[in-house]
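Changelog-adjacent note: as of this version, every example in the card shows the full chain rather than a window. The one below runs 179 residues end to end.
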Amino acid sequence: FCPGCRALQPPGPRPDLFRLMDCDRSFRVDAQQLQRRFRSLQRAVHPDRFGQRPPKEQYYSEQHSSLINKAYQTLLNPLSRGLYLLELHGVKPAQETDCDGDSVFLTEIMEINEKLAEPKNEEILEEIETLIKVKQEELTKEVTAAFERDDLQEAKKLLAKMKYFANLEDKLKNKKIPS
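Full-length structure tokens:
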């Protein structure tokens, strides 16, 4: 907002999502604090509040609202938060081939994929869902530790593994949707 006329201004070109959401630039995020900040910002700039304002302010409101949604979603999800932190540190995200050296990990992913390809079986799907959840929690702890040690290359490797499990989670959700 303009300090003089209180008119909404356009968002900056490359805003820091951590600063926008009033969070430390860290892998550890207080989800409740993040949600409070999200709601507070959305109350202030939501397009519904700018219906009677000039078109330019309405447009800025939509841009701010979209940016706040993006910041919230990015920082709330451990995978996207980790990838964003790597980006801020100038580290390119891992490519699919970066896990090629870890044959045990790739075998595990392949086995889960094969189970997901089998005819729908609720018991197996629940088993896979639990396994994915446990693996994601373990990886999140490991990524947290890697960032706290400032070991960005290890964080990058672990985030690549998290990406595989996120893909499996998407496949699982699609499989669970009744066709």
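Structural remarks: The chain is about 65% helix and 0% strand.
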